[in-house]
Amino acid sequence: MDLATFLVQCLNALQYGLLLFLVASGLTLIFGVMGVINLAHGSFYMLGAYMAYALAPAFANLGGLGFFATLAAGVVLAVVFGYLLEWAFFSFLYERDHLQQVLMTYGLILVFEELRSLAMGDDVHGVAAPAWLSGSIPLGTLMAYPVYRLFISGVCVLLALGLYAVISRTRLGMMIRAGASNREMVSSLGVDVRQLFRVMFAAGVALAALAGMLAAPVSSVYPGMGNQVLIICFVVVVIGGIGSIRGALAAALLVGAVDTFGKVFFPQAAGVLVYVLMALVLLWRPGGLFKAT
Amino acid sequence: MNSLALRGERLTRKWGGVVALDGVSIALHRGEIHALIGTNGAGKSTLVNVLSGEIEASSGSVELGGVDVTRWTQPRRARAGLGRSYQRSTIFPQFTVRENCRLAAQARFQRPWRWWSPASADEPTHRVSRDVARRVGLGEALDREAGSLSHGEKRQLEIAMCLATDPQVLLLDEPLAGMGAEESERMLALLAGLREGHAILLVEHDMDAVFRIADRITVLVDGAVIASGTPRAVRDNPGVQTAYLGGAA
Amino acid sequence: MSARAIRIAVFVAAALALALFPLVGGKFGVDFVTKMMVFAIFALSLELLVGQAGLVCFGQAAFFGIAAYATVLATPRTGAASVWWLLPAALGASGLFALFMGALSIRTRGVYFIMVTLAFSQMAYYVAHDTPLGGGTDGIYLDYTPALGIAGTPLLDLGKPWPFYYFVLAMLVAVFVFLGAILRSRFGHALAGIRVNEQRMRAAGFSTYPYKLAAFVLSGLVAGLAGFLFAVKDGFVNPELMGWNVSGTVLMMIILGGIGHLRGAVIGAFAFSLLEEFFKLDSVFGDFAKHWHLGVGLAIIACVAAMPHGIAGGRLRRATASNTEDAEVHRGKP
Predict the structure, then answer these.
(1) From CA C230, how far away is CA A90, in angstroms rounded?
(2) Which residues lie across from C132 on neighbouring strands?
(3) Taking 90 as the threshold, does the pLDDT of residue A59 lie above it?
(4) What is the ipTM of this complex?
(5) Does an interface of 3+ CB pairs under 8 Å exist between A and C?
(6) Hey, are the CB atoms on A272 and C131 less than 8 Å from each other?
(7) Contacts of residue C199 in chain B, CB cutoff 8 Å?
(8) E strand or H helix at B67
(9) Residues of A in contact with C49 (CB under 8 A)
(10) What is the CATH number of the domain that holds A168?
(11) How far apart, in whole angstroms, are the C-alpha atoms of residue B124 and residue B116?
C-alpha cells in the first residue's frame, strides 16, 4: 500500500470515527448519567439525515450559505424535538428497570421508522454536498481526497473540542460529571435534575441528528441507517466505558480504524472485526476502557 | 488435637498506591471468639475478604485447618469449612426463610445433574434448614418471606445461612449492625452459644459487646495490627488507648 | 385448589386447545400457530437464561441460526436425512457455540455481558453473511425434509402441515415440562440463587461459573431445537436468522410475556406474533396495514406502560442486577 492510499484510508477512518463519536457521545451520556438505555438513539441519526434531505430545498436559494442554514435549522429542530421527547416520554423511563427501557425504546424505534415512512416514504435519497465543498484535494500524483469529508472531520473535531470545553470548564459540565458519578448527590445539592436531564437529552439528540445531517451527502439517506449506526454506537460506548466522553472518542476512533482498515485488508471478515475488537477489549477490561467522565 | 482453625500469616494487600493491609497476622482457634476492631477504613473488611478468598492477598498466606488455601477460590474455601456473613445482609429476600437456609445447605449436597428430582424433596437440606433456623431462633418463621423479616431477624437469618454449610470457621462481619438493644442481646447470646465447636472472627464496632464476649481481641489501625491479646491486655495497652479508645481506659 | 393444581390444569387445557386447533384452524391458521410454537420454544430457551439465571443474553439468535444452518448443511444432496441423527447434529452445533460463547462471556457483568453476547452472535452472523460457508446473503435451501421413522418405517411426514404441527406441539410440551423440572431441581434453585445474589452463593460454597455455563449450554440446545424446527418448516435459511433483530425480538417476547415464569415466554411469543399479524390485517387497517410496525411499536409501549411485569404478571423477579447495581458497574467502581 503506498503512502497516498494509506493517507486516504487514515482520513476515512478518522472521518468515520469522528461521526461515530458524535452519535456515541450522546448515547453514553444518556446512559451514563441518566441510566436510560435508549435503543432509539439511532433513529435520531436517521431523522437528521432525512431532515437534511427535506430541508435542503427550502434553503436552496441561499446559495453557498444554504447548507449551513440547513444544518442550523436541523439542529434547532432536533433540540426542540429532543426536549419535548424527554418531557413526554423519556422522563417516565428513569424509574423503570433496564429491560423495560429496552422494550419501550424498541417500540419507539418502530414508531419512528413508520412515521418517517409515512412522512417521507421509503426511497433511498441522495443529498448533495454544497458546491463549494464538493471538490477534491490532490494527495500525491494519483489520488485526491474529497473536501467534504475533510469538512466533516473538521466540524466533528470542533464539536469534540466544544464538548470537552463544556464538560470540563463550565458549571453545566461540572453538574454532568457529578451526575455521572452520583445522581442522588447531585439532586441533593439543589440542582434541578429534571431540567439538567432534559437539556442533556436534547443535546444528545441534536448531536446524533447533526451527525446524520453531516453524513447524508456521503452515506446517502436510506431507511435502515438508524439501526446500523445504533448497533455500532453501542459497541463504541461499551468499548469506551459507559458514561465516559473520553472513552467514547477513543473507542470511536479505534472502531473507525479497525473497520476502515479491516475492509481493506480482510474484506471477507470486515463486518465481524469490530465485534472481535469489542470482545477482546471486554475480556481484558470488563468495564470498558475508561471510567465514567 | 490442635485447635488452630484458621491462620493468616503476614497478609498484605495493596490497591495501586494504597496499602490496605500491612503484614497482618491473625490466628483463630476453635472454641474461641476472636474480635477484630479498629477505626473506619482500618482494613477490617479487607482482612475478612482476604481470609474468605474474595480478594487475593498481594503477599502472605492463609491456612485453613493446616492446609494452605492462599490460592483457593472463595467457594472452595467455603466447601472446606470457612463460612462468612456480611455486614449488609445477603439473604434472598423473595425466598422463604426455609428456602434461604436450604439453598445455603445445598452447597454441601450439590448433585446438580439430578434434574428430575425437585429440590423440595431434598431431605438432607431440609433437615439442615430446620436445624439452623431453630438454632438462630427463627424456627417459627420458616415459611415467612425473608424480605418481610425485621432487621434483627434478617441478621439472624444471615448467621443461619452461614451455619447451614457446617463451617468450622465463622467470619462474621458486624452481625450487630443496625440492631436495637434487645435484638443485640439475642444476637450476643446466639454468638456465645456458637463458641463451642467453631472458631469465630467477629468484626464489630460495639465496644461493650466486644469486651463482653470476646476471648481475644486484635486491633487494626491503618492496615496494621497494633495490639492483639486478651481483652484486658488490649484495654490496658497504651497504644490502643490513644489510637482507638480515646485516652483514659 | 392449590396454586400448583391450577397451574397444571391451565397447562393441560392449553395443550389440549393447541392439540384440537388444527380441526378448526384452516391452512393459514395451522401454519401460523406452528410458527408461534417454534418461537415459543425459542423464547423458553431465553427465559431460562434471563428469567432464571439472570443472564441477559443478546445473542440468542446465534444458537437459533446456527442450528438452522446446520440442519440445512448436514442434509445430504442425495436424500432425506433421518431426524434421529440430524436433530442431534443441529443441537450439537448450537450447543458447542453456546459453550464457546458462554465460556468467554460469563466473565463479564451487567450491560457488558449483554454486549459481549451480542458481539459473539454478530460474529456468527458475519460468517454466514460474508463467507462462502453460509451461502451468503441469498441463503440456502433445505434440499429434503428430514424423515422421522423407526427402522425404515416412517412415523410422521414432517413435510405435511398437520404431522409437522403435532411434532412441534410435542416438542413444545416436552421442552416446557423438561424446563419446569429443571427449574424445580437443585440445579434450578441454585441458578435462582445465583441470579438473586451470586456473592452469597459463592460464600456458601457454590462455584458459580460452571452453573452459569451449564445454563448457557442448555439454553443453546433448546434454542437450537427451535432453529432446527424453523429450518424444517420454512425449508430455507439465511443470515438474517442470526441477526441482532432476531435476538431483540425474542427478548421482547419474554419481557412482554413476563419474565420469571416459563408460561411468560410462551405467552409472550404468542402475543407478539399475534400482535404483528393483527396490525398486518388489511381488513382492519386497509391501506395502512403496510405500516404495521407503527401499531406494534405503540402496542409494545402501551403494554409495558400498563403491565410493567409483563402479561403473565406476578412478582417481578429481578431478572438482572438492579439498576443501581448496574449503574455501579458502569461507573467503573472496582
Answers:
(1) 37
(2) none
(3) no
(4) 0.89
(5) yes
(6) no
(7) 54, 86, 90
(8) strand B67-68
(9) none
(10) 1.10.3470
(11) 17
CA distance A229 to A12: 16
Q: Is residue A11, in this structure, part of any structural domain at all?
A: no
Across the interface, whether the CB atoms of C185 and B107 are under 8 A apart is answered no
Chain B from 3 to 32: CB within 8 A of any C CB = 15
How many independent structural domains does chain A possess? Answer: 1
Contact C330 A37 (CB under 8 A): no
Q: What is the largest CA-CA distance in chain B?
A: 65
Other CB atoms within a 10 A radius of the CB of residue A88 amount to 9
Q: Hey, how many other C-beta atoms are within 10 angstroms of the C-beta on A99?
A: 23
Nearest to C235 by CA among C88, C71, C77, C26: C71
**Threshold 0.90, pTM exceeds:** no
> Looking at the domain assignment, is residue A1 inside a domain?
no
Q: Which residue of A has its CA nearest to C259?
A: A99
Asked if B161's CB is within 8 angstroms of C204's CB, the reply is yes
Backbone angles phi, psi at B9, to 5 degrees: -120, 115
Q: d(Cα A292, Cα A28) in Å, to the nearest integer?
A: 9
Residue B41 has a CB neighbour count (10 Å cut-off) of 12
Q: How far apart are CA C41 and CA C37, in angstroms?
A: 6
Domain containing residue A77: 16-128+146-284
CB proximity B150 to C under 8 Å: no
What's the CA gap between B35 and B230, in Å, rounded? 10
φ/ψ of B24, rounded to 5, equals: -85, 130
Residue A196 domain flag? yes
Write down all domains in chain B, each with its CATH number in brackets.
Answer: 1-81+167-249 (3.40.50.300), 91-166 (no CATH)
**Looking at the DSSP assignment, which residues form a beta bridge with residue B64?**
B6, B67
Percent of chain B past pLDDT 90, that is, above it, reads 33
Q: Is residue A23 part of a domain?
A: yes
pLDDT in tens, A143-195: 788 888 888 889 899 988 888 888 888 887 887 777 766 767 777 777 777 88
Say whether the A–B interface has 3 or more Cβ pairs within 8 Å.
no
Sort out which chain A residues have CB atoms less than 8 A from C127's CB and list them: 272
